[in-house]
Design a protein that fits this description.
The chain is of the alpha/beta class and about 210 residues long. The protein has seven helices and eleven strands. Helix content is about 30%, strand content about 20%. Helix 1 crosses helix 5 (about 120-130).
């Protein structure tokens, strides 16, 4: 049985957040494509998510958070990162940053680095705010190596199965089905674009040149 919720139903979103806290896997909208995730501190849920997506265990999954404070509790915010965060968050830029040494991130979820962003989607932010840990694994809701979805009907007709709940926001405003741009800022002074998505690499490097 899959629980079904709507973005404009705050009572439903609270129930969905409670399911996340209890270990459920949830499909939800973002500002790019539909995502799928769980509580990043629940190892069992994270491992189940890997199985659902048929994703290799050595390919870590990103985290969505509700604010800079949530990000800075997990990762080291460098000067480069702070500059890009100010320019592009909340939004379609995922940053790979060093995990803080005192972070309590589980070993099965993440390694010495974390990919993290604040999505520019009020439904997702509400859901994150209602969860216990104010964090959500935020990978695209598709099988690994398959295309992501912006239309809930296409998602429901896909081969992605095994999730516990679905938050419906209709058709997302992303006609290109484009994902977030991923920038690796682990090595200070040597930023790398790992994946070019909705934010062009030229914009990233233009902003960083102003440092």
């Amino acid at each position: 049985m899959v629980f079904y919720f709507k973005c404009n139903d705050d009572v439903g979103l609270k129930k969905c957040a409670s399911l996340v806290d209890k270990g459920s896997i949830v499909v939800f909208p973002t500002d790019t494509v539909y995502g799928i995730g769980c509580d990043p501190f629940n190892d069992e849920s994270v491992l189940r998510l890997y199985r659902i997506k048929n994703r290799p265990l050595d390919k870590y999954m990103p985290i969505l958070t509700n604010g800079v404070d949530g990000a800075s509790a997990l990762v080291e915010i460098t000067k480069e990162a702070a500059t890009l965060i100010k320019q592009f968050w909340p939004g379609q830029l995922t940053l790979i940053l060093k995990t803080k040494k005192n972070s309590l991130i589980p070993k099965y979820t993440f390694g010495k680095t974390v990919a993290i962003r604040i999505p520019n989607n009020q439904c997702t932010i509400k859901l994150i705010n209602m969860t216990r840990n104010k964090l959500l694994v935020g990978t695209s809701a598709n099988l690994s190596s398959h295309h992501p979805f912006v239309d809930i009907q296409e998602l429901e007709a896909s081969n992605l199965h095994g999730y516990d709940a679905l938050v419906d926001d209709g058709v997302l405003n992303n006609s290109l089905n484009a994902v977030s741009t991923i920038a690796d800022l682990v090595e200070v002074g040597n930023p790398k674009i790992i994946r070019e998505g909705l934010i062009p690499r030229e914009r990233i490097f233009t902003v960083l040149k102003g440092l």
